[in-house]
Every structure is written in C-alpha cells, then in structure tokens.
Amino acid sequence: IDIDAVTVVPYGAADSWARENPGSMIASYIEDAVKELENNPQHRDEINKLASAHILTMDVDEEKTFDACGAKLTGDGKLAIVFGADRLGSNTGDAFWHRNLEKGISLAPTTDVLSFYARKGIREDYEPDIASVQSDLKDILHKDITLHPNFEEFYEKLKQTKDGTDS
Q: Whole-structure pTM over 0.70, yes or no?
C-alpha cells in the first residue's frame, strides 16, 4: 500500500470527516476495497495481470470517470482507489464495488485482443452453457460437433463497425 496522505487529504472539504480523520478515512477506503476484492474473486486474475506492481495507491479522479470514487489501473502497474476532487470520503465502499472495479479494468490498457467485457461475457455466458449446447447438437445430429466461435476474429471485425464498442 502506497498512499500519500499529504497529497490526498487536502481534497477533503473543510471540517469534513476526510479532513478531520484522515487515517480513518484512508483505512475505510482500504478496508472496503479489500472486502470487495475478497467478494469478487472472478476479477483477481485480471487485476494481478494489470496491476503487476502489486501496489494499492490512491489519487484524485481527474478524468471524472466515476461519481464519488472508483478503481483504476495505472500505467505503471498499480491499482488505484480514485475519488472525485470534491467527494473525498464519500461512499468509500463504492470504490471497488464490482461495477466500478469492472469499469476500471475495462479502461486499463491491455494487449489482449478481446476487451474485458467481451472476455467477461464469454466466461459468464458462453462457457457455462456450451457443453450443453454441444450435447444437444450431438443428440439431434447423432454426431459429435465441435463449435469454433472464433471470438477474437469476430471481435476484430465488430470493432471496425460503428456499433462495435463496449460502451
């Protein structure tokens, strides 16, 4: 954990919890982040790959990507708790809420052909059902059928269209 309180705390409003109790405020963000990471193990592999430095940090969300707070992966391989410049200490439990965590992962630079949301869709919607579909096809056709979805090639073509975005 590498959080510079001297850099973070000035964003807290005067007389706010964030300003008056910076240790408690930072601890709350960290405790809530740990809890969310424990509750969402499906994201560990993605995070470990993208946050190769294995350092948790905290910074202002200059791009205003999230409402109060969220999670981002930095270019130097750190996992960052980010907060709105005027929202420090607000909704600390939301930083690594699964949707904010997924958004942060999806925005991280990657060399993967498929986007995070495409990989997530395959993992959650395709993989659990494909064996059953293949079994049904075998029963109907009386022949083993192997499906080759070619996700990567299809995704590349889809990205070239107007509607081919994850947004």
A: yes
